[in-house]
Amino acid sequence: MSRQERFDAAVALERPDRVPVMPLMTAFAPRSQEITQGEAWRDPEKGFKAMLDTFNDLGGFDRLYKPNLFWPMIGGRFCSSPVRVLIPGRQLPEDALNQIDEKELFSRDDYDKLAALGWNAFWDEHYEKMSGGRPLERVISAQNRLLDEYIRETEIYHSQDIHPLFGAYVDSSIMAFSMARTLTQFTMDLYEVPDKVKAAMDASCDDLIQNALDVVSKTKIPLVFIVLERGSGFYYRPDIFEQFEWPYLQRYVDAFLSEGLTPWFHFDTDWSLNLPYLTQLPKGKCVCDLDGMTDIFKAKEVLGGHMCISGDVPASLLTLGTPEDVREYCQRLIDEVGRDGGFFLTTGCECPIDAKFENVKMMIDVAKTYNGSK
Amino acid sequence: MREVDKMEELKRAFLDMKRQEVLDLVKKEIESGTELLDILKACRGAMEEVGKRFETGEFFLSELIYSAEVFKAVSAILEPGLVSTREDEDSKGVVVFGTPKGDIHDLGKNIVITMMRSQGFTVHDLGVDVPPEVFIKELERTEASILALSALITPAFVSMKEAVSLLEEKGMRDNTFVIIGGGVTTDFARKEIGADAQTLDPTEAVRLCKEYGERRS
To answer: CA–CA separation, A292 vs A296, rounded Å?
Structure first.
């Protein structure tokens, strides 16, 4: 099977020739090529080369999480809250991991404005004020430049039978609003002004979907990476999920599937309580990507035969464990979650910056050589 | 209304997630001359109940986050008047808490700290990106017996390990309970780091520290 066929088979719940595999690799690549994170951020060519070289050093795998360190964007539009990312060598030490500086981007009073304007028009009006005077034109120009890079690099990868995973990414409804308000303030909002939150989300959903579709129309990769973390049962009771996350997620899925795109749910934190809802979605069309906090073996019991599961070699295992520890865990995943197909062996969330190279290599090698105990 | 009923009303407002109602009741009690310590104890009781309901699955993390914010607001009103009346022996234990070097996340840390304070712990919060030696100095300065380290990304593991090594070097390891938590931590990481406990659950963190205190005394 080709890489593409193997990936398609897993999503469609078929049993490929072997389990497809992918570390969600970003910061790990510059580290393993012995350049600093700062160098890779300052010079996109170095970031790109680090990614490609690491892919090859690891012996290749079935999908490449990202072509470079940045995300695909489209000028003047936001697929997630425009949070400030702290960059190594600028706001952080030269070889540190980039991190998000979570701050309130709008106030409780702004919900009414969001409800009236929608997501895009709100940020058109509000971005400059929120960012402390950074002109929107500058952001648009940077976004366009990065999108061009993303497309150019994707073409190079495709010419080498390497397949970047996603054509666009988009925050779920709760994720977008929680990141813009901060988890604590957003939680207070949900209890104290739920109607305002709901009205703002109602008015924002179509814009977020359209922004993702616009990015995909440029990158031409038929998969949307949906970033979910904050709406889970780890944080909120199911009735909050039912009101503020699930209806919008269903709209995302409908919109993406009708355009022939695969929705990839990147579920950080524990989603055990929410997994049964996913059985309402079309069979064999989406991917449930788990980070290690949701019990992936129980997820198999709930979603097996309905939705492809991706996960979840834990960051701590890749960083602190031995290759033998990694082998043991990956084999268990293949035996239990990969049983009967519909499984993609990946790192639980991103591959840690300080993962041991031999551990990541072991994860990939196990997928290539181990076909299950039965 | 009897004093007991008033305190019950305060507790009910807490458990119903009614911030403004709690703050209004607290102000009313202060104006009517209720002892500040009694008000604080009632709020602590409410927080303890929040923790219990979280442990049974009735409450979610959002209710911990919400009530922790309410408790912080109440504490801000009561603290200035309480300083002179609080007694050290009231403390359930002394904790040095921080996000280790390499990580700047503090959300989980802040929730656990508020839960700990609401349960009577004295917590010295060192903030984020804290070097190992700073933790040790603070443990020495405060004579705290609990070191709590919270992290969301793996680079913090190195700092956690170093902190544990420093405790050993200084001969402080046997008298320090080291607890780690945060999204990236696992029991596997705990063993590798050499910590005593690991949890992702704020109420469990408080319980583990309480149990350590009880064993110690």
So the answer is: 7
Tens of pLDDT, residue by residue over A245-291, are 999 999 999 999 999 999 999 999 999 999 999 999 999 999 999 99
CATH (domain of A214): 3.20.20.210
* Domain annotation covers residue A374: no
- Per-residue pLDDT of B8-32, as tens digits, reads 999 999 999 999 999 999 999 999 9
A227 in Cβ contact with A80 (< 8 Å)? yes
The answer to whether residue A107 neighbours chain B at the CB level (below 8 Å) is no
Note whether residue A174 is domain-resident: yes
The per-residue pLDDT for range B156-203, each reduced to its tens digit, is 999 999 999 999 999 999 999 999 999 899 999 999 999 999 999 999
* Mean pLDDT confidence for B124-142: 97
If one counts the domains in chain A, the total is 1
Q: Which distant-in-sequence residues (6+ apart) come within 8 Å of A279 by Cβ?
A: A302, A303, A306, A307
pLDDT value, residue A285 = 98
Q: In this model, does residue B86 exceed pLDDT 60?
A: no
Q: Which of B17, B155, B192 faces A320 most closely, judged by CB atoms?
A: B192
All structural domains of chain B, each given as residue ranges with its CATH number in brackets, are 3-82 (1.10.1240.10), 88-216 (3.40.50.280)
CB contact under 8 A, A315 and B107: no
- Counting beta carbons within 10 angstroms of the beta carbon of residue A99, is it exposed (0 to 12), middle (13 to 18) or buried (19 or more)? buried
pLDDT tier for residue B71 given thresholds of 50, 70 and 90: very high
Q: Is the CB of residue B151 less than 8 Å away from at least one CB of chain A?
A: no
Q: Give contacts of A353 with chain B, Cβ < 8 Å.
A: 153-155
Beta bridge partners of A266: A227, A289
Is the pLDDT at B87 greater than 90? The verdict is no
Flag whether A147 is in a domain: yes
Domain coverage including residue A275: 3-369
**Residue A166 structure tokens:** 């996603």
Q: Measured in Å, how far apart are chain A's first and last C-alpha atoms?
A: 21
Q: Inspect the interface and report whether the beta carbons of B102 and A97 lie closer than 8 Å.
A: yes
- Entry field: residues in chain B: 217
Interface check B35 vs A, CB under 8 A: no
CA–CA distance, B43 with B180 (Å, rounded to integer): 27
Sign of the torsion formed by the C-alpha atoms of B50, B51, B57 and B59: positive
